[in-house]
Amino acid sequence: MSGDRIPFLDLVTVHRELEGELLSVFKTALDTAGFIGGPTVQEFELDFAEFCESRFCVGMASGTDALRLALIAAGVRPGDTVVTVPLTFIATTEAISQAGARPDFVDIDERTYTMDPEKLRSYLESECVRSPQTDRVVSKRTGGPVTAVIPVHLYGQMADMDPILDLATQYNLIVIEDACQAHGAEYLSKKKGRWCKAGSMGRAAAFSFYPGKNLGACGEAGAVTTDDEQLARRCQMLRDHGQSRKYFHDIEGYNGRLDAIQAGVLRVKLRHLAKWNDQRRERARGYDELLAGTEKTVVRPHVPSWSRPVYAPEGPGRRRHRNGPPLPDPASHREGL
Ligand SMILES: Cc1ncc(COP(=O)(O)O)c(C=O)c1O
Fold first, then answer.
1. Which of 210, 220, 257, 311 to mutate to test the pocket of ligand 1 (most atoms within 8 A of CB)?
2. Cα angle, residue 295 at apex, residues 291 and 299 outer, rounded to 5°
């Protein structure tokens, strides 16, 4: 810490406390030469699926890969339109365009900062027309069939999933949750009569394990969670050049694999995630008490009765390069997101 600057996020102390375990992850990878895939990745996938109350988890190289490959695996095709919110990280729309689809936007609820289901309804009713040939609505703006919707659980806050899922059923839309900022967040589903974990409600969900996330790797990593076995299998193939088995490339895929060192790191850190999320909630309660009475000047996160948010950290701003790199690194500001 320098001068009067207090970092938003301390990524040094958290790893120092786990140093022994993290170093042994690296040593295991060196001793076994297990760097890509293998048992450590599978063990993490099992653990994270259980944490998210999902049947399957497929590790990915990043949250962006997870979103893109989940969309493709779920059946989104070039020319489709995928609806999401304008308030998100750019990767949500990159994944849509890179799947060959067009993003279209419905706005957020200004209190929760997540997709407003009423605005989604009004978009589907007024800004789309039903195609007489297919069971789909077509966006008047893009001219393409609306096949999927991506609610984003932003800043650790859940989107209001019950009405979004109802609309998705009514309009035959695939729901992919962008849970990249919501590891462990929960939604009280009136329909199911219980609290549901982020990543367990859509057809599939995407998580990012970028270092500053609530569950962060020591590098790049991501995952798809789903209850749909076929979709999980397609994700496994898509992340590995479309291989069904070694050198049998049934479909054209990508290189989007999770490496074993990151999976091992994530496994160690996952054991602490519930406690860390509780600590974040405790801090948020503390801020609420300290800031009571400042409603006119300070807008604090609104927590609806149906949400147990996990208060995902906001980025700390552009990191200063002490020596000045020869070329500015456009990604260097993202360490905390
Ligand atoms: C809402 C959201 N979606 C997608 C992503 C993409 O994740 P990644 O940076 O791991 O590719 C992020 C990560 O910052 C995110 O916050």
1. 210
2. 85
What pLDDT score was predicted for residue 319? 44
Opening angle at CA 54, ends 53 and 55, nearest 5? 130
Query: Cα(137) to centroid of ligand 1, in Å?
Result: 28
Whether residue 186 has pLDDT greater than 90: yes
| Mean of pLDDT over the chain | 93
Alpha carbon distance 218, 210 (integer Å): 8
Q: What is the pTM of this model?
A: 0.93
For 151-181, what is each residue's pLDDT tens digit? 999 999 999 999 999 999 999 999 999 999 9
**Does 195 have pLDDT greater than 50?**
yes
Q: How far is CA 205 from the centre of its chain?
A: 7
Contact 270, 260 (CB under 8 A): no
Ligand 1: centre distance to CA 183 (Å): 12
CATH of 13-268, one of 3.30.70.250, 3.30.40.10, 3.40.50.300, 3.40.640.10: 3.40.640.10
Nearest to 191 by CA among 232, 216, 160, 151: 160
* pLDDT the model gives residue 8: 77
Distance (Å, whole) CA 10 – CA 257: 28
Domain map (residue ranges) of the chain:
13-268
Residue of 81, 79, 136, 71 whose CA lies nearest to 105 = 81
Which structure tokens are listed for 79? 């020319």
